[in-house]
Write a structure and sequence with these properties.
The chain contains no helices and eleven strands. By secondary structure, the chain is mainly β.
Length: 120
């Protein structure tokens, strides 16, 4: 069973930075991972994804501002968010999938409870 626990969400001013973390229990090193976000009244959006060994993809709205990374030794996924904007306000979730199932932002079978990011 895979469990994901996010942390690092906070309230910040526009232009600020945050780093989100997601600790994963269970098999991590060979899973593909992603960060999603959902704002009230809006659909869930894929923000950033990373393959098991290499390769990343970002939503156009965060390219150049956000960086996804992983530390397989610590079973932890990160999302460094810089130059935050009010439109980045949302609940952020990390998610995991088997790499042979789905694609960049599709097919994630495990998801955490989320961490709130508010930008004003």
């Amino acid at each position: 069973h895979v469990q994901l626990v996010e942390s690092g969400g906070d309230s910040v001013e526009a232009g600020g930075s945050l780093r989100l973390s997601c600790v994963v229990s269970g098999y991590f090193s060979k899973r593909c991972m992603a960060w999603f976000r959902q704002a009230p009244g809006k659909e869930r959006q894929g923000v950033a994804a990373i393959l098991a060994r290499d390769g990343t993809r970002y939503a156009d709205s965060v390219t150049g501002r956000f960086t996804i990374s992983r530390d397989n030794a610590k079973n932890t996924l990160y999302l460094q968010m810089n130059a935050l904007k009010p439109e980045d306000t949302a609940m952020y979730y990390c998610a995991a999938r088997r790499c042979w199932q789905g694609s960049w932002f599709i097919g994630y079978e495990y998801r955490g409870q989320g961490t709130q990011v508010t930008v004003s």
